[in-house]
Design goal:
alpha/beta; Rossmann fold; OB fold (Dihydrolipoamide Acetyltransferase, E2P); eight-stranded mixed beta sheet; 7 helices; methyltransferase; Methyltransf_25; SAM-dependent_MTases_sf; transferase
């Protein structure tokens, strides 16, 4: 990132996507965090591995739509050029940026300090096999959070990066980590993550999104399809409300011969659930409209069926008399109860 031509090329393609990811997750912070986070006169945010700053700028955009005081944003990166780019980029006049040059996870010139929001994106993807070191860093940083504080960790949606983040989350939760997992896992999951039970599984977001014509043309020329925000994330908080007990669709919804099926997570286990065509009714029809990341109400009893396509998981057929109640969109926005059924 120290070479201007690389920064320009990166920003032209990934900058818009990073900003959109930050803005989407920033809205989720607003939705999930303790209300007293936004009662403060001034917010302090730390972004670890900030790069050229588009991701944290996206988060700031969402925060400043709800918070009317100033936001102090401290960016940490190993590239002086990237930090200089971030400082000189246009921004909201209420956003005040400072920087530290550091190679993470070993250098920590930004400590001691105190922060309301800590974010880290794409660091594990660039630092393989450093889970323990990043866990040490984040555990230390978590102790700097002020009341109502939030920590957001994000990685790309590929299998290796996603599993690295989920493993890091388990490592943090197994320690004396002061934060609670607020999202995306249902039921305030502690550990271990069920996606890690088998080596070919991982869990990621695939949120529909709109991008500029310029970006879409560039993506097309590269053979890429840009129609969604793809990422894996964990949102922790000192306070705040974890997701209630529910089932979260963690795969695409598949249409087979005579049924729809998907993999769902309740925070402790993955379930292969299918809706047979003969069980479609006014109560269950919304099952066929589900998208990855949406949550539905959890039945009191999950009736297991044998002969699952994936026998290593619990599996069930959804009964026709049991209503499918859509609780929330992938970003946690509740469904309108009447429209969501």
């Amino acid at each position: 990132m120290d070479r201007p031509e690389i920064r320009e090329a990166y920003g032209a393609y990934y900058g818009e996507v990073s900003h959109a990811k930050g803005e989407s997750l920033g809205r989720e912070i607003v939705r999930r965090a303790s209300p007293r986070l936004f009662l403060k006169d001034r917010l302090r945010m730390l972004d670890l591995g900030a790069g050229t700053g588009e991701f944290s700028q996206g988060i700031a955009t969402a925060l400043l739509s709800e918070f009317y005081g100033p936001l102090d944003l401290h960016l940490v990166d190993r590239s002086d050029g990237a930090l200089s780019h971030a400082v000189n980029a246009p921004r909201d006049p209420r956003l005040f940026i400072s920087v530290s040059r550091a190679t993470l996870p070993d250098e920590r010139p930004f400590l001691p300090g105190s922060f309301d929001i800590v974010t880290m994106a794409n660091c594990l993807a660039e630092n393989e096999h450093r889970d323990e070191s990043f866990a040490d860093l984040l555990e230390e940083v978590s102790n700097t959070l002020r009341p109502g504080g939030i920590m957001l960790l994000v990685e790309p949606a590929d299998k290796r990066s996603s599993r690295a983040l989920l493993s890091l989350g388990d490592l943090l939760l197994s320690r004396h980590f002061p934060l609670t997992l607020l999202a995306p896992c249902p039921g305030g999951r502690v550990a271990p993550c069920p996606a890690l039970a088998h080596s070919d599984d991982w869990c990621h977001e695939d949120r529909p999104a709109d991008f500029s014509e310029t970006l879409l043309k560039t993506a097309e020329s590269l053979g890429h399809i840009k129609d969604a925000l793809k990422m894996t994330y964990l949102l922790f908080g000192l306070e705040g409300t974890p997701l209630p007990p529910s089932l979260r669709l963690v795969s695409p919804l598949h249409k087979g011969k005579g049924f729809f099926s998907g993999d769902f997570c309740d925070g402790n286990n993955w379930w292969r659930i299918r809706l047979l065509n003969r069980n479609r009714s006014d109560l269950t029809r919304s099952f066929t409209r589900l998208h990855r990341g949406e949550t539905i109400g959890t039945p009191l009893v999950l009736p297991l069926r044998s002969g699952s396509p994936r026998d290593r998981r619990g599996a069930m057929d959804w009964p026709k008399e049991l209503p499918v109640i859509r609780l929330a969109h992938p970003d946690g926005q509740p469904f309108d109860r009447e429209a969501g059924r």
